[in-house]
Structures are given as C-alpha cells and as structure tokens.
Amino acid sequence: MNSEQSTQSATPETMTRLERVKANTREDHQQIDNMVMAMKPFDSRANYVRFLQLQHAFHRVMKPLYEAEDINQLVPGLASRSRYDDVCADLADLGAAGREGAQGMAAPQKGAGRMGWLYVCEGSNLGAAFLLKAAARIGLDDSFGARHLRAHSDGRGKHWREFVAQLNALELDAAEEEAFMKGAHDAFDFFHSLLLDDQRLAA
C-alpha cells in the first residue's frame, strides 16, 4: 500500500499531524495544480515568466517566516530552505520583474498558522522535480531560469522527510493545531488569489 492509500484509509486519530493536514487540503492542492497546468507554463518562456512571477509573489510573503527566529529554534535549518533568492535570480536571468499583484496580502507573522504556510511552501518543492524536467524544454535548468526548482543537495525526499519529522514533533495545543490547519488552507487560498490575478491580467 502506498502512502496516499494509507493516508486515505487511516483515521484522524491514527494520522500524524501532517497526514491530517494533507488529507484536509487535498482539494485545495488539486485546484492549484490544475490551474497552474492550465497556464501551460512550460510551453513558452513568456508563459513561464507568468508562472515565475506567481512564485515570486508567494515566496516574497514566505521569506519572513523562513527567517523568523522563534520558528528557526523549533525547526533548525529552516532559514536555509527559503527559495525567494533563487526565484529573484531566475527572474533576473529572464530579464523579468516580480509582480506586485498581492499588495496587502501576507502570511501571518506570529502563531502556529505560520507552520501551515510553511508546510504548503515546502511541499511545493517536493513535486518540483517534474517541473524542472519540463523547464528543460524551453532551455532552462537549475543554473539558469529554474534555480528555485532544484533539489536540495541532500535530495528532495530526505529533505522533505526531515521537515515532516520536525513539524510532526512540535508540541501544539488544540488551538494551535487548528491554527496550523487554517494556515495551510490560507496559503493555498493565497496562491489561488495570485492565479486569479494572473488570469485577469492575461485576459
């Protein structure tokens, strides 16, 4: 039985924290995946720049979370995981600028909800191997234009498992657990709003 099947058959009482979050945000995640693929980001560099601008807006609001001192005490090494600088370098490679389409919208700056946002952001890198291969079709790779999609030197799987273990080990009370879950939903909602902005601009 694969992990997806085991998560679906498990009960909330037997699931880990991140298994519960994954199960509760599955529809959010699928909606985002569908909308991103509908952009056809790897059909042309112009399409890819639109995708990259979405990434820039998202990772810009995530950067303070990765740098938060209190979270780094709970999740050692978190600061080094931020991909914001790589996204900026990718935009520079392609002579493009970030998009200021989400003014006034930001991730929370305190509380357990930040962990839900981090779960969504880190999880997006787990599936980036497929996107990196697709980027090669338009002449991009992990040293030009698609740096933010590259794997950690330890490997995507190992890096993700370490992060999952760190978040599952956090001691949270009931209110913090609820905030964690809401944070994950809010992160997906935020990216959804970025996609809707992109659609309006492209129309």
From TrEMBL:
Superkingdom, natural source: Bacteria
Pfam families with a match to the protein in the record: Heme_oxygenase (PF01126)
Region (Disordered) residue spans: 1-23
SUPFAM superfamilies linked: Heme oxygenase-like
Biased composition range(s): Polar residues: 1-14
Protein name: Heme oxygenase
Organism of provenance: Thalassospira marina
